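ugh ok fine here u go
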Amino acid sequence: MQDAGQTSCDEVLPDAVQVPQPPDVVQVPDVEEPDVQELDHDDDLSFMANDIQPMYDDNSPLPILHHDIISIEQVDDMGLLNAGFDIGSSPVRKEVVVEQGNDVAIDMNDPVITTPTKKKIVLKKGMLFDNVESAKKFYKDYAHDLGFYIRNGQQRLDGNGVVEWKWFLCSRAGYRKKKEIEHNNSSKKSKKTRRTRQTRCGCEAYIYVKRTTEGKYKIAALKEGHNHAFVTPSKRHLLRSNRCVSEKVKTTLFNCHKASIGTSQAYMLLQIGAGGFEYVGCTKKDLQNYYSDFRNKIKDADAQMFIDNLYTLKELDPNFFFEFEVNDGRLCRVFWADTTSRKNYVHFGDVISFDATYSTNQYDMKFAPFTGVNHHMCSIFFGAAFLADEKIESYIWLFQTFLRSMGGKAPSFIVTDEDASMRAAIDVVFPNTTHRLCMWHIMKKLPDKIDANLLRDDEFRTMVNSCVWGSETIEEFESRWQAWITKYHLEGNEWLQGRYLIRESWIPAYFRDIWLGGILRTTSRSESANSFFNRFIGRKLALVEFWIRFDTALKCQQQEELIDDNTSMHTDPKLFTSWEI
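structure:
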């Protein structure tokens, strides 16, 4: 509550405006206006906000545009075919605005567009309005018809918080003050600032509304003249007052992110669906600003929202499993597995792959999924976790939680990367499980460990692939390994020496009696799993953003399994021979 006569400043009164003040109005000194972003955002950033106002009033339709088509012959007659034009010029284009039955031609290249002779909305001194918002809406509609937009000026509130008087200005009123940069240390580089274009030009157009004794608001003073060009009809949708991120746009953006489609591509989809950029209702930058503000809004509650979502899934499906731990108020470990994944583990959980090499989210938490192979020889999901660190105790907690979620059934065979903490945890939780290392992860490191020139040698690649992937027996592997190591003088390569010492844990020739389901040595399967998960975890996403993408991707994987089931049930494979099995 402000005292009577106290003045508050929403915006700065332009220096150039000189308006006779009513006797009871106190002139308020100019106050530097804060920088504003390109888009005015709503306070409520949820995807289902209810406070978005319609862009246009149904009772005030937009001007109708007619585009004159000029033929090539007319262009040639004007001598324009070989003429040189400045960048951005378009001498053959013009627009006609139909207003109240009169055609007003507008030259699209005229540097200063004047006000049409007849205005659809008439602005007059002494006009009365029920409240300040009605006056603002009227001036906003008036500005829309002419091709400019408005902003708030100074105002005064009485002791009850009621507006006594208020200014509404052209958005280009006044001038921005240059910010003085203080250099405490001349040798220290100043912070890099974003270069912006000037939007103020000292325009003096305004209206001044004052509260009457009857409680209404009257236009006590105004000025209609502008010192700048108006926005032409084809660019009128770019006015800030005509732009907002509508509920339809928010919903489309949300659905696109569920499908791992980014904001830029979502905007392209919006303009195609709307029939043009002018019908979307906002610019791509507006949409990016909205989504950025949404992320900032949820960042302090992101972990809680993620856990609340897991609780909701548990209420909807009692067989949904999840556990989590919090340390010093921060989520440090969480594991989950849905009903379908737990059922798949019962049938296909003998051989599993555990991979913690994926990118982290924006909180530097590792994403660690458990995957397997189904009866169609396709990858399936068993469960996943986020871990704040890669310590032994974290992996022990995760493996024990995974074991509880699967009814205490341990896998017969598990494939992982070379992480030492992971190996130690497996020895504790899965003592009777055979543990091997993934060949694909090891061979993926080879280009970084040897001379790049060797990788361009076709014979070298052939010898290495034949040794690692093609050896059928231990003796065959040993002889081939020594052959290419000796030929290319790699005896001193420490990384290769280390891989040779642990050869029994990743070379299939040493455990050919174990069924692997193709999970250890099939490069395409490992690449497919990495591609599947990296679609929604490789962008430093928040937990909520991760989940909406992950949930959609998991449903797609389960749908593919249903398609394979349907195909195998209702079709027969081609037989290569007529021999009976």
